Amino acid sequence: MATKNIMIVGVGGQGTLLASKLLGYVLLGQGYDVKVSEVHGMSQRGGSVVTYVRFGEKVYSPVIDKGEADVIISFEKLEAARWLEYLKPGGRIIVNTQEMEPMPVIIGEAEYPDNLVEKMQAAGALVDAEDFLAVAEAAGSSKAVNIALMGRFSTYFPEISEEEWQKAIEACVPEKFLELNRKAFEMGRSA
Amino acid sequence: MRELMLGNKALARGLYEAGCKVISSYPGTPSTEITEEAAKYDEIYCEWAPNEKVALEVAHGASLGGVRSACAMKHVGLNVAADPLFTVSYQGLNAGLVVCVADDPGMHSSQNEQDSRHYAMAAKLPMLEPADSEEARVFARRAFELSEQFNTPVLIRMCTRVSHSQSVAEPEERAVPKQVPYVKDPTKVMMTANSRNAHLRVEQRTLQLVDYAEDCDLNRVEMGDTSLGIITSSTSYQYAKEVFGERVSILKLGMVYPLPEKLILDFAAKVDKVAVLEELDPFIENHVRRLGVKVSGKDVFPVCGEFSQNLVRECMGLEVPQTMTVKDSIPGRPPVMCAGCPHRGIFYILKKNKCMVYGDIGCYTLGAVAPLNAMDLNVCMGASCSGLHGFNLAMGREGEKHSVGVIGDSTFIHSGMTGITDISYNMTNSTVIILDNSITGMTGHQQNPTTGKNLRGEPAGKVDLESLCHALGFERVRVVDPYDLAEADRVLKEELEAEAPSIIISRRPCVMIKGTVHNPPLEPKEDKCVGCKACMQIGCPAISVRDGKVRIDSTLCIGCKVCTQICRFGALE
Predict the structure, then answer these.
(1) What is the pLDDT of residues B198-217, one digit of tens each?
(2) Is residue A18 less than 8 Å (CB to CB) from chain B?
(3) Which residues of chain B lie closer than 8 angstroms to A82, CB-CB?
(4) Which one of A39, B161, B520, B571 has the fewest beta carbons within 10 angstroms of its own beta carbon?
């Protein structure tokens, strides 16, 4: 099997690290070689963040380059547009339509572009857009956006059963948030 | 059992398996998790030292005491530890000593992009360089064996992509060697004849290590197509395999100092052309050239920045994948100070007073970004104190009245103390602000000597900053609450005017520390807001203005009320 490339992008503090932990756990359980790469430090402070997840028989590079991603999971709309050039032609991008204004927009130095979903489609991307913040809130907390998004992502790989995902959630999420995240995952999956 | 492990965690695992008993480190991205992960093993004593020089000396002391020991730091930390590093190389050990150093090509979280391999050559120490997590684990064990076999500290060089990538590792059991008895040895005193003999021994050792490098399994040849041979190491090896697979032959170096000679010459003879693929400086390339091999390297690949598979493809004239983009320009999303960050108020006041601000290394470096733009420059840990003194020597009274140094609590203990001692001893009327947020913030909340807790969060000794500054010769030591803008402004003005050296301690715990009490989020009064955007000057991510009215993001706001003090219309009560 050729190496598959999944990117998780968003804003520092949105819980992208838990999403990649979950994904890594599931993939390792499938017997794949897996690499997960992220940058810690400065970017945690509300900056643009990215995690690269690669899996297959044998994975070499820890990073994904422009034009290589099979799937991008974006926690925020502007970040989806920022990282779009990493998507492979024919690749799919899951977009949480939530808007988070970056500092240059907040202070009026730049504008948040409009109609980004349509523009990404016009650029040739297969866009799967949904208000996952609303999904997470319906599940019980806005903090569960990450797991709701992973619920949607799980439908892209039908060969991995829902049970495997639920097992991974149990292993990666603290006990007291387990019920919330299980629900968010299911709602994201069926949304 | 197979486990997906962060490179730093795998290195910590390797240290554990090798029976390491003492680790002393100073945090620094991307090295921090090496020590944090090691601390999860009860069998290893782990500590945060005040700086990297202390950390290395502690680890060496533990080696002299007879147990395997280690320290970890980022690349610039090795500059601080360079003094002991060079002489520990001469002096030798009693039990194994491993020094882990993490470089940051691409400068994800660093002020420069220096290449630590030069230290291995300069201090004449073997350096291993893992290319993934499993190698990090295995190399840690091998490093201890090498260290004891050749009586030398061994460097392990990590980089951001190895430190902060998870890949599959297969942990093994821990094996602890017997503690080596300490025996007094007069040749250990490094002076005159002893040092001269030690240097001879070190040169001899390097020759033996070259022999070792020729046929050890840390270096390996992967023969494929022989039209091109690539000599590489670390994450560059991964990019070479990603791009070329079996279509090239590869000499993969796990030991990057000292480098083998015969192994390289033999490899070069088997292939039509030789290229060296390495990030940063042409370290391997220069060695290969000295051996008389015709090689391409930095004529094709850049010295600056990180590599990736596309970069390798481009430099080698291969096709890169097609991409798609949206036409709009996408606004940047730089990191910002958190909502409620205690540094914000101080930077606002400094900006208002038009101060020249000599910054330092930490979260507060973010005081430099828009809209605060309140930091003029920074250099390295502690330079805000000593650099300010030098600035004021040149600028005189006018400088003293309009300039400050700002430094965090952890950075101050690391190397600010010596700088302020220069101020009090040599008497400029400089003003240094210690931003005491009771934690080492930027690297992810490590304890330090001012917090009263040790690495594991247990009660520990506590440095009293006020007493310390008094003892270092400062009569004027003021403490302010950075949430009280009027008070901070008044104290700043007084200390800038004072004809004496001053310390202002701005004290408020980081809002991200667990247990910090937050106030309820503010509820803006729309009827009072005139849309003047004065509140936007502080760059708080919780504040925005929509349709001419201020909005507060209640998920971010912690009710610090710094904005309340800026609004003249009472819209943010």
Answers:
(1) 999 999 999 999 999 999 99
(2) no
(3) 330, 333
(4) B520
